[in-house]
Amino acid sequence: MLRRKLSFYFSKKWYIHPMICFTHKPAQEQGNVLFLILIAVALFAALSYAVSSSQSDGQNADQEKSTIAASTLVQEITLIKNTIQRMKILNNCTDEDITFVYDNDLDGDLDSDDKYWNLNLPSTECYLFHPDGGNLRFPIVDDNIGTGSEIIFTGFNWVDNVGTPASDLIAITTNITRAACDQINRELGAPTTNGEPVEEGSNVESSTFFGAYIQATGIDGMDGAYDGCFNGTNFGGTAVGDAYFYYSVLIAR
């Protein structure tokens, strides 16, 4: 009897519906897919954060470089101003004697090929960039605050309510960035127009100093300020649009 039952059991063909056999597998696959999607989303978020942080760090680094470069420029011009006063006292240099000639062509000699050369050069004790005089180096503008910028020493401009109406000896740094201009004005406490650099409508003369003061044009928007940065729309007789200039009165006359 038992043998007959077992024979019947093993000889019977059982049918297992595929839906019954595999009903649990699609649910598992769906769970795996969802898990992978969550991982991908998390990785994308982490990557986006890393890129954003990198860009932010880069911008902060650029801003810090600009701030340092602007402060360094102010310090260099202040050193020039103090050195001129020292040469006037110790070396008996007059306002006209102060000389900015330097060996810009690097030929080891000072001659007519060099900037700020003039035929009436005084004693080398009045040369700002000579060991006998100020013993300074000609300042170079850092690229972080102005590509192609340069420093011009001129006796063709005056600043309203600084000294007399006569022209002053002024250092002008051309075409610096707006960020550097704002930094300089904050550092010096210079005049602004509602936080914006003062717009200087009159022409600012670009002729270099050669021992003579010529009353050409005035910087009339920076009333009474010996130092500061303005928005110069006209420079050297040429319209320049929005261009930013840092100036410092070295000798007020």
Could you outline the blueprint of secondary structure elements for this entry?
Layout (H helix, E strand, L loop, with lengths): L1 H10 L6 H5 L1 H67 L60 E9 L8 E9 L1 H11 L3 E2 L2 E5 L16 E3 L7 E6 L1 E2 L2 E2 L4 E8 L2
Parallel strand pairs: 1-5, 4-6
Antiparallel strand pairs: 1-2, 2-9, 3-4, 6-9, 7-8
Q: How would you sum up the global shape? A: elongated
The total tally of domains equals: 1
β-strand percent reads 15-25%
For the biggest sheet, the summary is: 7 strands, mixed
The unreliable regions are 5-23
Number of helices: 4
The string of secondary-structure elements, in order, is HHHEEHEEEEEEE
> In order across it, which strands form the biggest sheet?
3-4-6-9-2-1-5
SS-based class: alpha+beta
> Radius of gyration over alpha carbons?
37 Å
Question: How far apart are the first and last residues' alpha carbons, in Å?
Answer: 133 Å
Count of extended strands: 9
Question: What does the model show?
Answer:
It is elongated and about 95 Å long. The relative contact order is 0.13. The protein is of the alpha+beta class and 253 residues long. The strands form 2 sheets. It has a 7-stranded mixed β-sheet, with helices on one face. It has a two-stranded antiparallel ribbon with strand order 7-8. It has 4 helices and 9 strands. Helix 3 (24-90) packs across helix 4. The protein has one domain. Strand 1 and strand 2 (168-176) form a beta hairpin.
